[in-house]
Amino acid sequence: MSLPDLIVEGLDLLFVGINPGLKSARLGHYYAGPGNLFWKCLYESGLTPELLLPQEDRRLLEYRIGITDCVKRESRAASDVKATEFREARPELIRKLERYRPRIVCFNGLMGYRGTIDPTAQLGQQPDRLAGAVVFVVPSTSAANAGFTRAERLDWFRKLRTLRDEVCSDPE
Predict the structure, then answer these.
(1) What are the sequence ranges of the domains in the chain?
(2) Backbone angle region of 89, left / alpha / beta, with phi > 0 → left and psi within -120 to 50 → alpha
(3) Calpha distance 78→143 (Å, rounded)
């Protein structure tokens, strides 16, 4: 079981998760795990004008936001994803970015970005683009991420919203 990508051409923002959790894969909706802050961070940061529920994940496309994962295999915890799976996932992820050309790619979790793209990366905007997209990394919104408070994660989403507003106001 996995989750289908929520991607179309012309997205302002594409979130890339680490991999689907068991509950999300079973229910067929992104970030459905208990305690995951993704939907609250989206709304409270101003990235969406309303608080969406996991079962409304496809509505994100209305706001020019999409979702995929680094690794499409579900697992109980992100730590169950092997380093080789991240490396093997890289070419397919790059192909998706080249195909759909989002303006910004945001990795939800440093683990996914480090495992797939840059092992030395830090949070925030990255110096290099991927397939032309600006790259940003936020701390994982998973309830298992005890390294960041809710307020700290929300602050990173607010920085992402500021970046989105800047990038999307540029006619390019």
Answers:
(1) 13-169
(2) alpha
(3) 11
* 97 to 9, 43, 85: CA distances (angstroms): 10, 25, 18
Question: Following DSSP, what letter does each residue of 45-68 receive, concatenated?
Answer: HTSSSS---GGGGGGGGGGTEEEE
Cβ(37)–Cβ(145) below 8 Å = no
What does CATH list as the number for 13-169?
3.40.470.10
Strand ordering across the sheet containing 134-138: 65-69, 13-17, 104-108, 134-138, 124-125
The pTM of the full predicted model, rounded to 2 decimals, is 0.95
Q: What is the pLDDT of residues 33-90, one digit of tens each?
A: 889 999 999 999 999 999 999 999 999 999 999 999 999 987 788 878 899 999 999 9
